[in-house]
């Protein structure tokens, strides 16, 4: 699913109005009606007090259309206009007149704190104050209104985007924003729903279809895209009946040091479980017996050293190599990595200590093959690209790094983001149970396994992150957040593949029948 920027959303409105020859404020009518349908489906006429707070732009206009439908359907509604300026939009004014036609009561005008209504915790707040048109910091009395919402503990439903948040930059005042229980977002989710610093703007979100021109939506390239089952399913490569293990490549995991052989076990098992035909681990001697014993399907090549990697020499021809896991940064290992990068021709997944070594030896960056996949967690990313001032800055820096060195960067975490030059893909699979030792090693193994099977680097990164998160989600059902281990994620890679064809993806877009008001 694409994430459109606010400029693209405004353009989509214009294109739609032209293509569909829409009368003025028709899109606002659709938006307000869809929100009403959503509420009506759930409330079925319940007389819970609903406080609809409207700004004076088009977000406020949506709120007024909603309020009109709620009033005509007999709901217990109070409508407020938050008087935040002088420039009432044309469509807002049209909607304002229409509300007056159906109600004996005028919307209440709020100008300062003494105007605030009492809100009970069992009431419902509809936040239609600011949408994507927020263009400056908010006055203190409106921030106080947002705090009044919070203090009430009432369920807060935001229209399009919780008020006070920008779509494309951080907020200055953490207190001066609405934090919604639910946000109904038009046509596209907003980027801020997925970034660590802003995702608490709403607990849940859903996309509402207001009939924006299909061609425009299909053909417009976006900087951000969500990756879920629908996006990865077309990448899946089915197996031929007469397939041979040689068809699925030979994966190599290079890593490990004394006390960190388990990491290599996890990654190597993940290469196999994601479908590589053959898998070899290159490790220091101390890992030979444990790895051969615990993972009979894998082959093992050992370094001359017992405890660490000192020279990465092997006589196999791997189709992909995952490197860095549990490897340490011993001086001999640093030299071994340098020598390896100078000679290597195979596609690479670079993780953990290999990333840390590269961060400390920037000259190694030019030795990394084009389209290599780097899988840093946030600390490793900071070592690579430097500090960032906020999440938007982080994404820009990661994009610039990816463009400059022609590599893919996978920013791991909740909503892992795959950075491919200026394009960013956001994963929706995964859960906090995966915040456990070794789960990153599993990801490296899965992506290495996909590269072996001739998925191209972008597909390997996207499909790999999807499968990893999905396996974690399926494992969660059995183990729960606390007991989920990285090896359980490996156990569920197979289920994650099977699930691709098992259940249709849950819609992120509510298909609500348009109801005549
Ligand atoms: N396809 C779609 O998605 C559709 C989207 N639609 C809806 O349109 C919404 C966007 O509407 P919008 O452009 O009118 O902007 P909106 O968010 O209402 O805010 C602008 C108002 O706020 C004001 N203002 C701004 N900052 C302020 C501040 N800090 N403090 C005080 N005031 C401030 C600003 O004032 P001004 O800067 O002009 O003085 C102006 O009055 C979108 O989110 C969605 O809900 C549908 O209706 C149709 C299809
Ligand atoms: N809260 C979370 N939600 C979803 N995925 C998570 C969460 N925390 C961690 N993960 C995933 O778990 C993995 C952790 O990787 P990493 O920190 O490198 O672990 P390790 O070094 O122990 O292997 C990443 O793929 C990350 O996306
Ligand atoms: K809003």
UniProtKB/TrEMBL annotation:
CDD domains: YXKO-related. The keyword NAD applies. Transmembrane segments: none annotated. Keywords: ATP-binding, Isomerase, Kinase, Lyase, Metal-binding, Multifunctional enzyme, NAD, NADP, Nucleotide-binding, Potassium, Transferase. Its cofactor is Mg(2+); K(+). (6S)-NADPHX binds at residues 58-62, 131-137, 160, 263, 326, 377, 441. GO terms for molecular function: ADP-dependent NAD(P)H-hydrate dehydratase activity; ATP binding; kinase activity; metal ion binding; NAD(P)HX epimerase activity. AMP binds at residues 412-416, 440. One of its GO terms (biological process) is metabolite repair. Its EC number is 4.2.1.136, 5.1.99.6. Residues 228-500 form the YjeF C-terminal domain. In the C-terminal section; belongs to the NnrD/CARKD family. Homotetramer. This is Bifunctional NAD(P)H-hydrate repair enzyme. The gene is nnrE.
């Amino acid at each position: 699913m694409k994430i459109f920027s606010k400029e693209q959303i405004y353009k989509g409105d214009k294109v739609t109005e032209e293509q569909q020859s829409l009368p003025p404020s028709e899109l606002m009518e659709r938006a307000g009606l869809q929100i009403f349908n959503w509420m009506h489906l759930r409330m079925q006429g319940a007389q819970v007090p609903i406080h609809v707070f409207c700004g004076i732009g088009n977000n406020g206009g949506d709120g007024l259309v909603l309020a009109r439908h709620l009033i005509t359907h007999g709901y217990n509604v109070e409508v407020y206009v938050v008087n935040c300026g002088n420039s009432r939009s044309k469509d807002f004014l049209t909607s304002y007149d229409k509300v007056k036609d159906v109600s004996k009561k005028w919307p209440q005008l709020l100008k300062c704190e003494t105007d605030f209504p009492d809100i009970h915790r069992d009431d419902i707040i509809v936040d239609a104050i600011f949408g994507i048109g927020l263009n400056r910091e908010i006055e203190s009395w409106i921030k106080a209104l947002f705090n009044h919402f919070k203090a009430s503990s009432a369920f807060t439903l935001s229209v399009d985007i919780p008020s006070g948040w920008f779509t494309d930059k951080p907020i200055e005042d953490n207190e001066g924003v609405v934090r919604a229980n639910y946000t109904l977002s038009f046509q596209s989710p907003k980027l801020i729903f997925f970034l660590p610093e802003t995702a608490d703007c709403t607990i849940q979100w859903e996309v509402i279809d207001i009939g924006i021109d299909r061609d425009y939506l299909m053909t417009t390239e976006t900087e951000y895209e969500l990756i879920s089952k629908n996006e990865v399913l077309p990448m899946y490569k089915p197996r031929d009946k007469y397939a041979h293990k040689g068809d699925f490549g030979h994966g190599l995991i290079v890593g490990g040091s004394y006390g960190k052989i388990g990491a290599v076990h996890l990654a190597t098992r993940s290469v196999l479980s994601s479908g590589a035909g053959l898998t070899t681990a290159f490790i220091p001697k101390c890992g030979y017996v444990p790895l051969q014993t615990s993972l009979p399907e894998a082959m093992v090549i050992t370094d001359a050293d017992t405890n660490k990697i000192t020279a990465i020499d092997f006589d196999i021809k791997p189709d992909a190599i995952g490197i860095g896991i549990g490897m340490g940064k011993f001086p001999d290992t640093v030299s071994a990595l340098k020598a390896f990068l100078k000679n290597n021709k195979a596609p690479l997944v670079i993780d953990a200590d290999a990333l840390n070594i590269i961060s400390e030896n920037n000259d190694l960056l030019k030795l990394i093959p084009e389209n290599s996949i780097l899988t840093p967690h946030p600390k490793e990313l900071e070592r690579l690209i430097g500090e960032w001032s906020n999440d938007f800055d982080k994404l820009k820096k990661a994009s610039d790094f990816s463009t400059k060195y022609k590599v893919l960067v996978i920013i791991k975490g909740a909503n892992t983001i795959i950075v491919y030059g200026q394009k960013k893909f956001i994963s929706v699979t995964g859960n906090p149970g995966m915040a456990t030792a070794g789960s990153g090693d599993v990801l490296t193994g899965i992506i290495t396994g996909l590269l072996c099977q001739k998925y191209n680097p972008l597909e390997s990164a996207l499909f790999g992150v999807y499968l990893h998160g999905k396996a974690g989600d399926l494992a969660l059902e059995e183990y729960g957040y606390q007991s989920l281990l990285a090896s359980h994620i490996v156990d569920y890679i197979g289920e994650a593949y099977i699930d691709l064809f098992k259940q249709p993806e849950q819609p992120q877009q509510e298909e609500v029948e348009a109801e005549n008001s």
